[in-house]
Amino acid sequence: MMTRQVNDATLALIKQWEGLRLDAYRDVAGVLTIGYGATRGVRPGQRITAAEAEAMLRADLERFEATVERLVRVPLNDNQFGALTSFAFNVGAHGFGTSTLLRRLNAGDYAAVPAELAKWNKAGGRVVAGLANRRAAEAGLWVRGDFVAGNTVAPQAPPNEAALQARFAGYATVAATAAPALSALGAVPQWVGVAAVLAVGAVALAVILQRQRAAA
Questions:
Q1: What is the spatial distance between Cα 117 and Cα 91, in angstroms, rounded to a whole number?
Q2: For residue 102, which of 117, 118, 124, 121 has the smallest C-alpha distance?
């Protein structure tokens, strides 16, 4: 099966933050780099063409696309997959594979990803503005709504808040029906039973909406 590939939004993000350099240089961490952040086999004084830089980027991305696909055990939409691929491309497969970000995501904590991305903003022990801005861009891509399936993820429907509101209205009807029984069992006024059931329903609705918005 072909490895999943990043979408155009991800490719544009990576090119923007890596920048195109046709002459070999040392990045903020002192690593010899060329093209769009390529580091493998770079020689001092090396010079390449724009076409060669594009080919090197595509080859490098294949490795990190495969890394993300292999290590992430929960479904990802295209933008989520792209944000993680950009992150892994920047911090390396080992950094991504041993990160708290990956551990929390695989535990189902999608909402933790933006904050975990923001922690990776240092080079040589110092906060670097460019890295902080890149992490913010990746977090923005992560939370962007995208309901178009990738080549390994089934399509997802957008959150339907109207349906959830209707469900809550149903809870209110149930509460009104159940309140006399609750009152009789607990020797409390009927309005207390209604309020208790409605409160539980409201909390459940808020949690569902928050999780769906976080996953959008």
A1: 11
A2: 117
pLDDT in tens, 64-118: 999 999 999 999 999 999 999 999 999 999 999 999 999 999 999 999 999 999 9
By annotation, the residues acting in catalysis are: 18
**Which amino acid is residue 172, in one-letter code?**
A
The tokens describing 63, both together, are 């490795």
- What residue has token string 């207390």? 192
Structural contact between residues 35 and 20, judged by C-beta atoms closer than 8 angstroms:
yes
Query: Cβ distance 144 to 7 under 8 Å?
Result: no
Phi (first) and psi of residue 120, to 5 degrees: -95, 65
Q: Three-state DSSP class for 102?
A: helix
Query: In three state form, how does the secondary structure of 29-79 look?
Result: CCCEEEECCECCCCCCCCECCHHHHHHHHHHHHHHHHHHHHHHCCCCCCHH
Q: What is the identity of the amino acid at 109?
A: D
Distance separating alpha carbons of residues 73 and 96, to the nearest angstrom: 14
Spatial separation of the C-alpha atoms in residues 63 and 19, rounded to whole Å: 20
Query: In sequence order, which ranges of 120-189 are alpha helices (DSSP H)?
Result: 129-143, 161-186
Q: Give the separation between CA 54 and CA 44, rounded to whole angstroms.
A: 20
Residue 181: how many CA atoms within 13 Å on its side-chain side?
6
Residues 120-155: tens digit of each pLDDT:
999 888 999 999 999 999 999 999 965 433 334 444
Quickly count: other Cβ atoms within 10 Å of residue 167's Cβ: 14
CA 4 to chain centre: 16
